[in-house]
UniProtKB/TrEMBL annotation:
The lineage of its organism: Eukaryota, Viridiplantae, Streptophyta, Embryophyta, Tracheophyta. Belongs to the fl(2)d family. One of its GO terms (biological process) is regulation of alternative mRNA splicing, via spliceosome. Keywords: mRNA processing, mRNA splicing, Nucleus. Its main location: nucleus. This is FKBP12-interacting protein of 37 kDa.
Amino acid sequence: MQARRLLLDPAVHEEFIRLKNLVEEKDKKVKELQDNIAAVNFTPQSKMGKILMAKCRTLQEENEEIGNQASEGKIHDLAMKLSLQKYQNAELRSQFEGLQKRLGGLTNDVDRSHETLFMLQEKLEEKNQEIQRLKAELQQESCMENGSTEAAANGKDNGEMIPAEDAN
């Protein structure tokens, strides 16, 4: 009962908690120092050393296996990307070849069009020359008619008659 009354006293209770925490800290410190002593005394030939070495080997093997799996996964991903790139490359190549063939056909069409255009230009020039020649002939005939009409008109004034055959 008296211990209970003492714990109810706030000052005593606080001192009790402080001392309890101090004991816990000291216990941790003792455990840490004991672990340090055990580590200093560690040898691969001791029972604990052998267990730790075996565990280290097991962990190292597991790490290597996981590394290999990760590497294989990356290789698999890269192989998938490579096959996709090859497929896209083949598709682009076939499209390019198709376009190249079409371009060759268009080039041939353009060449034929140029040849046709050139021939039509030559024919147009020939026709223009023919039109110019016919105009010149028509103008000459027109001048000749005008000249004979004027001569006929002049002959009437002079009292001479020009036969109709000569007028043409």
